[in-house]
């Protein structure tokens, strides 16, 4: 639709005014599918675990942001990577009337903290976390940090590089994964096990 594959039919409104509420939710989704989506989101979420990315911060001049009164008048959706984007904007809602640059397809990468002027990163956290952050925000206004899909792709590439570096550092610090024997649950050297298999194979001739 806008460059994302979305979880089926999970559309939600933002705000407590029933007259402006968008709601269309089909809940007949199997547990297995939910589990698969959850695991996938958690995996992709881990690439954004750098401290600077996850820390609470203030809005900077480099951010494209919008300050919108509740109810926001937008529909948010979640991609397979756990990123949350704007799927629809109510032309008569507060977001459309805010005079900020808000576009369909924009990815929400930051939301106001519960109190104050700071924002939390929402990269890869999923729709539930973003909706909760907006709901518990104190006051009538919410700040959203927005990125286009192209801008987000660039950030994601950098985050993947950082994640690979963290994995390499962890392996250097703690060693390679330990392979356990499925019966005795004791550590096994995979190289020695492979050598024994080869020796046994040649003994047949």
TrEMBL record:
**Sorted alphabetically, which keywords does the UniProt record give?**
Nucleomorph
Q: Which residues form the PDZ domain?
A: 72-149
InterPro entries registered for this protein in UniProt: PDZ (IPR001478), PDZ_sf (IPR036034)
Where are the compositionally biased (Basic and acidic residues) regions? 153-175
Write out the ranges of the annotated region (Disordered): 150-205
Q: Where is the composition biased (Basic residues)?
A: 194-205
PANTHER family documented for this protein: PHOSPHOGLUCAN PHOSPHATASE LSF1, CHLOROPLASTIC (PTHR47661)
Q: What is this protein called?
A: PDZ domain-containing protein
Q: What is the lineage of its organism?
A: Eukaryota, Cryptophyceae, Pyrenomonadales, Chroomonadaceae, Chroomonas
């Amino acid at each position: 639709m806008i460059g994302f594959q979305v979880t089926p039919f999970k559309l939600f409104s933002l705000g407590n005014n029933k007259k402006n509420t968008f709601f269309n939710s089909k809940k007949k989704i199997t547990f297995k599918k939910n589990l698969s989506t959850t695991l996938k989101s958690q995996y992709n979420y881990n690439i954004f675990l750098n401290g600077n990315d996850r820390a609470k911060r203030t809005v900077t001049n480099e951010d494209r942001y919008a300050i919108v009164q509740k109810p926001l008048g937008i529909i948010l959706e979640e991609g397979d990577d756990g990123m949350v984007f704007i799927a629809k904007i109510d032309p008569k809602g507060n977001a459309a009337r805010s005079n900020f640059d808000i576009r369909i397809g924009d990815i929400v990468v930051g939301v106001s903290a519960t109190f104050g002027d700071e924002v939390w990163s929402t990269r890869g956290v999923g729709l539930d976390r973003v909706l909760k952050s907006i709901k518990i925000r104190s006051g009538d206004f919410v700040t959203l940090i927005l990125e286009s899909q192209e801008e987000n792709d660039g950030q994601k590439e950098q985050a993947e590089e950082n994640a690979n570096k963290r994995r390499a550092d962890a392996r250097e610090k703690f060693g390679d994964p330990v392979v356990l024997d499925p019966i005795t649950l004791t550590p096994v050297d995979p190289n020695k096990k492979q050598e024994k298999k080869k020796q046994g194979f040649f003994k047949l001739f």
